[in-house]
């Protein structure tokens, strides 16, 4: 069982192809290719953390069809473009048209999450932070939202599908824990928070 992280898939969003210079001719090709990319690395028993802005579709049925095509046990972190996911989460849809349990699509929903994986502390949020819990002890901050426009800062990095920071190119698929660890092992702890006086302040909380 492996653990994966991704964000800002924007399934169904035609303009994102132009905005982010994605290598697809149209939204159908993008959706199809990203589903195949995802399933080529993620197995059914793997865990995937999705850090928001999953899809652009307005109807639940289409969103569910995309989610259902993707392998893995999915945990969702809300982004700023997730109205349809909120709708699913809150069961605000016609159940005579789409019959499913929200928890069957996502194992959990949240806006912010802290996890520990292989003894590594990880903070998950759609938005990138300059300060996060345990950063002076080497915790990671994984985020999306910026579509490869916000450079890594200390042990924080954009894990969105457009990000080139981790492997040197946009992969248009989730990143594995091992890929992120290889990147993070080369990153310094944020320097302005290594001053003893600052550490003393942070250690009080």
Provide key terms for this protein:
Purple Acid Phosphatase, chain A, domain 2, 205 residues, globular, 4-stranded mixed beta sheet, alpha/beta, 5-stranded mixed beta sheet, 7 helices, 9 strands
What would you note in describing this structure?
By secondary structure, the chain is α/β, with parallel strands linked by helices. The chain has a single domain, classed as 4-Layer Sandwich (Purple Acid Phosphatase, chain A, domain 2). Helices cover 28% and strands 18% of the residues. The protein contains seven helices and nine strands; from the N terminus they run βααβαβααββββββαα. It has helices at 14-19, 27-41, 60-69, 83-89, 102-105, 177-184, 196-202, and strands at residues 3-6, 47-50, 73-77, 108-110, 112-117, 120-125, 140-143, 156-158, 175-176. It has a five-stranded mixed β-sheet. A four-stranded mixed β-sheet has the order 5-6-7-8, with no helix packed on it. Helix 3 (60-69) links the parallel strand 2 (47-50) and strand 3. It starts with a strand and ends with a helix.
């Amino acid at each position: 069982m492996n653990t994966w992280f991704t964000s800002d898939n924007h399934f169904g969003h035609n303009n994102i192809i132009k905005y982010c210079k994605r290598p697809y001719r149209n939204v159908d090709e993008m959706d199809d290719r990203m589903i195949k990319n995802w399933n080529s690395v993620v197995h059914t028993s793997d865990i995937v953390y999705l850090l928001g802005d999953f899809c652009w579709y307005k109807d639940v049925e289409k969103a569910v069809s995309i989610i259902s095509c993707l392998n893995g046990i999915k945990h969702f972190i809300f982004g700023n473009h997730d109205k349809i996911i909120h709708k699913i989460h809150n069961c605000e849809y016609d159940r005579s048209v789409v019959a499913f349990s929200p928890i069957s699509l996502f194992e959990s929903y949240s806006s912010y999450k802290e996890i520990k994986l292989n003894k590594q502390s990880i903070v998950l949020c759609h938005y990138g932070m300059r300060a996060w819990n345990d950063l002076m002890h080497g915790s990671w901050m994984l985020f999306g939202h910026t579509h490869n426009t916000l450079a890594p800062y200390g042990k924080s990095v954009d894990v969105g599908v457009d990000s080139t920071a981790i492997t040197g190119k946009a992969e248009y698929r989730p990143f594995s824990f091992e890929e992120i660890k290889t990147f993070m092992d080369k990153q310094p702890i944020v320097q302005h928070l290594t001053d003893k006086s600052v550490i003393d302040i942070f250690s009080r909380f």
